[in-house]
Structure formats: structure tokens, C-alpha cells
């Protein structure tokens, strides 16, 4: 059914009266949950609320088309859908509203995301993927508008790979031969985002089973459709995607009204069948929806909707329309529906009460335990007048939070710091330490994998070299590494611009498409955001993608989705989901403003939760790839742009040797100054170190190798204990990567204690690098800059031995 065919279809699904009444019950339970949730926020029991009222009926229809093995990448109003597929109880719904950090009570995010952010737990207690092919799955929601779309593309793309690559058919807990549909949901206003258009275009090119529902209630917060969408209709402006006939590439596009239960059920059955059987992407534009409580608890929609619009919304409320339809068709009586609505309200009240008790009772118990210890401390110290007010305030607080308890304990201990140490004081101190540890698990854990496949658990295998080891271009080392890994694991694949036919612009994949096929080594369009999203979704489903961003400068197109989705995935699900995606890119020195970037601080500040490898050559890069492809954690690997043609020895175990992350390497031992650097700067610094040796200065050169993690064994501090001087050097802007390294070494490692001279940083100029060799020389640190900086450091201490040069 195309956009042009907008007539309401007849109900085709063989549903019974019991089915209709079940849906009616769920719809009203969801509505009452929304209404109750708003009240809980206004009563101060929750911080913020965003609810799914007005979207209940289309979500019920979508749920009836959702099968085991399918995946959702959605929108934070999908509460009815999640309940209908059996992946959300109303007690869990309220647990999330209250931010209950107990993963048993709130399995989606363990209280780490605001309400309406849904996820299923896809990992077992050991961090291994569960049987995804036989469960209903939801990838973890994020708030940024349209941010679910890149990942949705990847979830659908995985089905294509599982169907078309026979080598993957053996993984029957991950897929049933690619029969799974990836269901996406999005609000009409969010379709204005570039990620939406990019993802739809890519899905049409790839022909993947991606079913996108647009919940259209005409507004984006207060901004109506005339400011959002050309023609005020996303389906009309996307008509060019409509395929011309069966077997042709393109989309199927359906339009259906959001209050038409029969039409919705029929549309979703038809759409899901096309998507599942033919792997044709589908767009369902669900129109004429309402939002009875407005956008969120932040404001009232009466401020921006006219009286006529509000009256229309009340008349077209999908629950009222569903009731009218059930009565008109003779599926229920007024009495039956009244009883269902009454019962639904009672169900939600019970769930809300139970969820609040499960959340608040443990906090009250913790408060009471703390107060008992504090009372003992007051008795021991005889400082009742000083402490009484603080203890009494905590004791009488009707709704304490854990921060209140810890804050009081810390302030009390501060107040008695000059008192004689007593049993009561020691008890309070121990209790504080216990609470801090418990809350660290609640609120700070699981940024990285805690499974046996975590990066730190991968066995280190040294590189070995034959006596006649071939000396080849660096790109050939990578080519051999990828070749070996592709042979080892059929789940590995690579995608990116120019990756396929020509084997990437630097030839590290040369010949691998011919050897392993187009499904394993694949070209993409120019669309960095959804290249990464394609990888995230596929990795969520158990595959091992390598997604290439051709130049590091272009990572900017994808940094948002890397930061908001991939980096925080394990954290925001408290270990419930993982996506071990490898992003391969190249940067540092080449030519000009947009091909010589080293925006390390931007990356470091955005991607905590993703490892960052900065190898100086291709053998080191290969070692990192070997480690990461055996691990279950995401990473970015930045290769040196000017290193592909440099000669390197090929290890005899090029596909098996592994490098540990977080361990620097001493490239040259020295006694006078330690230089901490990475990437292409290693060759610059080594050149300068040789020149400095000629004038009697001994430089120790350390390649950090990875920035995340950074020097986990504090090897750099050991070097400073010997040299007592340090220079941090890289190609980022001043205060960028050098400041990051300095903070780790001087603050975290406390190596400031060993310094006899001011620590120095040497970075690029504050602007982008200019074009040409001269542009490189005068924009980025060069060997002369390194020489002069270190010589000046030595001259400050021994001016007679090292007289001023200039």
C-alpha cells in the first residue's frame, strides 16, 4: 500500500473479542500510568516525566506484528508497546520514574536514565549474549532526537547479513536466518533531523528489514508541523523512496490514522510481512495522534495549542475512538469497558505503590541505620549541641535520598575532626566508606565490560619474527592482519567509504573483497554518522563490525552518535547490553585543513566508554586490532596517515599477536628528560632525540600507545623519577591531548613529586594545519621545536653547559 493509497484498510488479522479487550485493558493501564506518573513528578517523588499518552493504540498494533528475534530502536513514548510485548511491567515503569538503581527492579537502565528509556537485558550475568533469536529485544534508548536511527539501520543490516551470508547461519541464538525485523519509532518533529534522512536513504540503498513508525501528533514540543516539515507531512516528502513494484529497490510507505485500531492492526501486519519476507524497508506514517498531557512535565500544552486544537485532540483521543469502535462493532458493552477502565486504574495504583515501597523502603532503612550510628557518636563525643541539628534534620526528613545520608555523615565527621577518636566515630567512618562503595556500584559502574572478554583479560601474545621476516609497506601488515582475522571469525566484517572495491584509500583491505565477498568487505555511501550506526546495531546483535571513517577529521560527523549511544551503552544499561564496535580511522600528518586533524581532546572528552588506540605504526595497529577483535569492548583506532608506505617487518603471527591496552612503550631510554607522546609525533621526537644526543642531552622517549586507557601501571611516573623533567608532545591544539596526558601523569600518578623543572607541553598551533609541507612545518610541532623546547629546559638548569641558542 503506497502513500497514494490512503484509504483505511479492512481488518485482516484474525483477532478475537478477548484480544480486543486485552488491548483495551493495556491501553487504559498505560494511560493511567501516564496520568499517575505526571502526578508523581508534581508531588516531588520523581524529577521529570515524559509519557506515552495519546500513542497507545498504534503501539498495540505494532506489538501484534513484533515477533521473537525482532529488535526495537525507539522513542521515549513507547511504554504501551513495551508492556504489550511483555518486556515492561508497570512496577518497572514506576521504578524507572523514581530512578530505582536496583537492576532487578528497573532492568532497563538501573535508574540511570529518565523515564521512558526502555531496554531489554541482552547479556547474562557473565556478560555473554543471551538467546536473542528467541526473545523480543529492545536496544537501549537515548534522548537525542533521531539518535536511535543510525543504530536502527545497523540492527536491520544485521538481518541482511544473517540471511545472505551462509557462514552466519550456524549462529542460531543470534538470528533465525535473518528473519528479524528492526522496528524503529520516532516523533514527527524529530524527522527533521539529518540522521533520520541519512538512515532512511541508507536503508533504501541497502534494502534491509527496517520498519519505521512516525508518531505524528503535529507538534515538536510547542512548534507545530508547519515549522517542522515541508508540506507538513513526512510521508509526502519521502514519496520518492516508494518502490515502483515488487522486486524493485526502495521503500514501502503506509499512512494510517493513529486512532483507527482496525486500520492500524491491518497496516502493521501487512508492513511487517513485506519487511520480514522481502527485506524491504517500510515507513509507516501514523497521523492524527494526540498528546493529552502535552510534551512533558516541564510545561502545559495549553500555552501553545488553540482551543480548537485542544477540542479536536479530545475528540480524537485514540482511547476514546477505540471505545467507540468496540461498541459500534459489538465487541463489548458499555459495562464491560467501564469495568476494564476501573480495573486498569486499580492495577496502576497497586503497581505505583509497590514500586515506591521497593524504591523508598531501602533508603529509609539506610537512613535509620545511619541515624543510629550518629546517635551513638553524639553520645560518645558529648557534642550533642554541635551535631544535634544535622542528625535531627536527617532523622525527620520524610523523603530522604541517599545523598542526604552520605552528606550528613561527611559533615558530621567534619564537625568531630578534633574530637578524640572513639568507637562511634570509627563506626560512622566505616559506614560512610560502605555507603560510598555501594553507591559507586549504583551510579558509577559498568562504563566498560566486566566480562571475561574485557580488554584487560585478553591474553598478551608477543609478536614473533622469522629470521627472514619480509619488510613491506605498513599497509601490507594491516592487510595480512585483517586477512587472518577474517578467516578466523566469520562474524567480522568491514564497511566504509572506498573500503570494498579498491580496498580503502590506503589499500589495507586490498583484495579482501574478492577473497571474502561483498558482504564481508563493503563499500558505503558518504554518510559517517550511519556508517557508525550501522556498526553499533550489528555489534549489538553479536556481529563484529569494523566501520571505517576515512579521515579522522570526518569523525566529527559521527562523534555525536559515538558519544550519546556507543560510549555510554554499557553504562546506561548497567551491563545489560554491549556493542563491541571497532571504528578504524586515520589522522595526524597529511595535507591541509581537513586531512591533517588530531582533535584528540574533542574525542577524549566525548567518548569515555570507548577505548582510544593511537599506534605509531601499522604493526602496533595490527596488535591492537588482534586484541580488540577478541574482546567485547568498543574502540577507535587512529592509524598514522603518513605511515602506510613506510617499511615494517611483518610478524610471523600477524593475525594472532596481541598488544595490551594502557601500557606505554619506551622507545628510547634516557636520563635527562622524559618525552611523552604518541602517533606520528613518535618519529618527530625520535629525530629530535638523536639531535639532542649530539649536544649531550639524553632523552627518554615514551609512546603511550593508547590514550584510553592511559598508562594503567604508571610507567611514566617511574621514568620521571629518573629524569625529573617531562615534556608532553602531540599534534592537538594547545591544552588538548597534552593537557590530558599531563593531568594523568602529574595528578593521578602524582609524579609532580619527582620534578625538578616546570613540566612543559608542546602542541600544534591553535588553528587547523595549513596546506603543503610548509603548512605542516609551521602548523604542527617539528623536530626543531622539540629540540629547542628540551634544550631550553636543560639550559634553565645548566646555562653554562647549555648556553642560549637564540
TrEMBL record:
Required co-factors: thiamine diphosphate
Domain Transketolase-like pyrimidine-binding stretches: 472-646
Pfam families, per database record: E1_dh, Transket_pyr, Transketolase_C
Keywords: Oxidoreductase, Pyruvate, Thiamine pyrophosphate
Oxidoreductase in keyword set: yes
Function: E1 component of the 2-oxoglutarate dehydrogenase (OGDH) complex which catalyzes the decarboxylation of 2-oxoglutarate, the first step in the conversion of 2-oxoglutarate to succinyl-CoA and CO(2).
Protein name per its UniProtKB record: Pyruvate/2-oxoglutarate/acetoin dehydrogenase E1 component/TPP-dependent pyruvate/acetoin dehydrogenase alpha subunit
Amino acid at each position: 500500500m503506497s502513500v497514494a493509497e490512503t484509504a483505511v484498510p479492512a481488518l485482516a488479522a484474525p483477532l478475537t473479542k478477548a484480544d480486543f479487550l486485552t488491548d483495551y485493558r493495556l491501553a487504559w493501564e498505560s494511560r493511567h500510568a501516564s496520568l499517575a506518573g505526571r502526578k508523581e513528578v508534581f508531588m516531588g517523588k520523581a524529577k521529570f516525566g515524559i509519557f506515552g499518552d495519546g500513542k497507545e493504540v498504534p503501539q498495540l498494533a505494532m506489538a501484534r506484528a513484533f515477533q521473537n528475534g525482532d529488535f526495537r530502536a525507539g522513542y521515549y513514548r513507547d511504554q504501551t508497546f513495551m508492556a504489550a510485548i511483555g518486556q515492561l511491567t508497570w512496577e518497572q515503569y514506576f521504578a524507572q520514574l523514581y530512578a530505582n538503581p536496583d537492576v532487578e527492579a528497573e532492568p532497563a537502565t538501573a535508574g540511570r536514565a529518565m523515564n521512558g528509556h526502555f531496554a531489554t537485558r541482552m547479556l547474562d550475568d557473565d556478560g555473554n549474549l543471551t538467546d536473542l533469536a528467541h526473545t523480543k529485544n529492545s536496544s537501549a534508548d537515548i534522548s537525542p532526537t533521531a539518535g536511535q536511527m543510525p543504530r536502527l539501520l545497523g540492527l536491520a543490516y544485521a538481518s541482511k547479513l544473517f540471511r545472505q551470508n551462509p557462514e552466519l547461519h550456524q549462529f542460531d541464538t543470534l538470528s533465525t536466518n535473518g528473519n528479524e525485523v528492526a522496528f524503529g519509532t520516532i516523533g514527527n518533529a524529530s524527522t527533521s533531523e539529518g540522521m533520520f534522512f541519512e538512515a532512511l536513504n541508507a536503508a533504501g540503498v541497502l534494502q534491509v528489514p527496517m520498519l519505521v513508525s512516525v508518531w505524528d501528533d503535529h507538534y515538536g514540543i510547542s512548534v507545530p508541523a508547519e515549522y517542522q516539515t515541508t508540506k507538513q507531512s513526512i510521508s509526502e516528502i519521502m514519496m520518492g523512496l516508494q518502490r515502483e513494484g515488487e522486486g524493485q529497490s526502495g521503500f514501502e510507505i503506509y499512512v494510517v490514522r493513529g486512532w483507527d485500531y482496525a486500520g492500524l492492526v491491518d497496516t502493521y501486519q501487512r508492513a511487517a510481512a513485506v519487511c520480514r519476507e522481502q527485506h524491504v524497508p517500510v515507513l509507516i506514517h501514523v497521523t492524527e495522534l494526540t498528546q493529552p498531557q502535552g510534551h512533558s512535565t516541564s510545561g502545559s500544552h495549553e500555552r501553545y495549542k488553540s482551543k480548537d486544537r485542544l477540542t479536536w485532540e479530545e475528540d480524537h483521543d485514540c482511547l476514546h475512538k477505540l471505545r467507540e469502535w468496540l461498541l459500534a462493532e459489538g465487541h463489548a458493552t458499555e459495562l464491560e469497558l467501564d469495568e476494564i477502565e476501573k480495573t486498569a486504574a486499580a492495577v496502576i495504583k497497586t503497581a505505583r505503590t509497590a514500586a515506591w515501597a521497593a524504591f523508598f523502603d531501602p533508603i529509609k532503612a539506610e537512613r535509620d541505620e545511619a541515624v543510629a550510628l550518629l546517635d551513638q557518636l553524639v553520645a560518645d563525643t558529648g557534642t550533642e549541641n554541635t551535631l544535634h541539628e544535622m542528625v535531627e534534620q536527617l532523622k525527620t526528613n520524610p523523603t530522604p535520598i541517599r545523598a542526604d545520608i552520605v552528606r550528613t555523615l561527611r559533615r558530621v565527621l567534619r564537625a568531630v575532626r578534633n574530637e578524640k577518636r572513639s568507637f562511634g566515630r570509627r563506626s560512622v567512618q566505616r559506614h560512610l566508606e560502605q555507603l560510598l562503595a555501594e553507591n559507586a556500584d549504583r551510579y558509577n559502574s559498568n562504563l566498560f565490560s566486566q566480562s571475561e572478554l574485557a580488554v584487560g583479560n585478553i591474553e598478551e601474545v608477543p609478536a614473533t619474527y622469522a629470521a627472514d621476516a619480509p619488510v613491506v609497506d605498513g599497509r601490507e601488515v594491516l592487510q595480512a592482519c585483517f586477512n587472518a582475522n577474517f578467516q578466523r571469525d566469520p562474524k567480522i566484517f568491514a564497511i566504509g567509504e572506498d573500503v570494498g572495491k579498491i580496498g580503502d584509500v590506503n589499500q589495507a583491505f586490498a583484495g579482501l573483497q574478492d577473497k571474502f565477498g561483498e558482504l564481508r568487505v563493503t563499500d558505503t555511501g558518504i554518510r559517517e554518522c550511519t556508517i557508525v550506526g550501522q556498526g553499533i546495531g550489528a555489534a549489538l546483535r553479536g556481529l563484529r563490525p569494523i566501520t571505517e571513517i576515512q579521515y579522522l577529521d570526518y569523525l566529527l560527523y559521527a562523534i555525536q552518535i559515538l558519544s550519546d549511544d556507543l560510549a555510554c551503552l554499557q553504562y546506561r544499561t548497567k551491563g545489560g547490553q554491549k556493542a563491541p564496535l571497532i571504528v578504524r580511522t586515520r589522522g595526524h600528518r597529511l595535507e591541509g585543513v581537513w586531512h591533517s586533524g588530531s582533535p584528540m581532546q574533542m574525542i577524549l572528552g566525548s567518548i569515555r566508554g570507548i577505548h582510544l588506540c593511537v599506534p605509531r605504526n601499522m604493526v602496533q595497529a595490527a596488535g591492537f586490532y588482534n586484541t580488540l577483535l577478541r574482546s567485547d569492548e568498543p574502540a577507535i583506532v587512529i592509524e598514522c596517515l603518513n605511515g602506510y608506505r613506510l617499511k615494517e617487518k611483518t610478524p610471523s603471527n600477524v593475525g594472532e599477536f596481541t598488544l595490551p591496552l594502557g601500557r606505554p612503550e619506551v622507545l628510547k631510554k634516557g636520563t635527562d628528560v622524559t618525552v611523552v607522546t604518541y602517533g606520528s609525533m613518535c618519529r618527530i621526537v625520535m629525530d629530535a632525540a638523536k639531535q639532542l644526543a649530539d649536544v649531550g642531552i639524553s632523552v627518554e622517549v615514551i609512546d603511550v600507545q593508547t590514550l584510553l586507557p592511559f598508562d594503567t601501571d604508571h610507567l611514566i611516573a617511574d621514568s620521571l623519577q629518573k629524569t625529573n623533567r617531562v615534556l608532553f608532545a602531540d599534534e592537538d591544539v594547545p591544552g588538548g591531548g597534552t593537557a590530558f596526558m599531563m593531568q594523568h601523569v602529574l595528578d593521578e600518578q602524582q609524579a609532580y613529586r619527582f620534578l625538578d623543572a616546570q613540566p612543559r607541553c608542546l602542541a600544534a598551533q591553535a588553528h587547523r594545519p595549513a596546506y603543503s609541507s610548509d603548512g605542516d612545518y609551521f602548523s604542527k610541532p617539528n623536530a626543531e621545536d622539540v629540540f629547542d623546547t628540551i634544550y631550553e629546559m636543560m639550559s634553565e638548569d645548566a646555562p653554562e653547559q647549555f648556553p642560549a641558542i637564540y
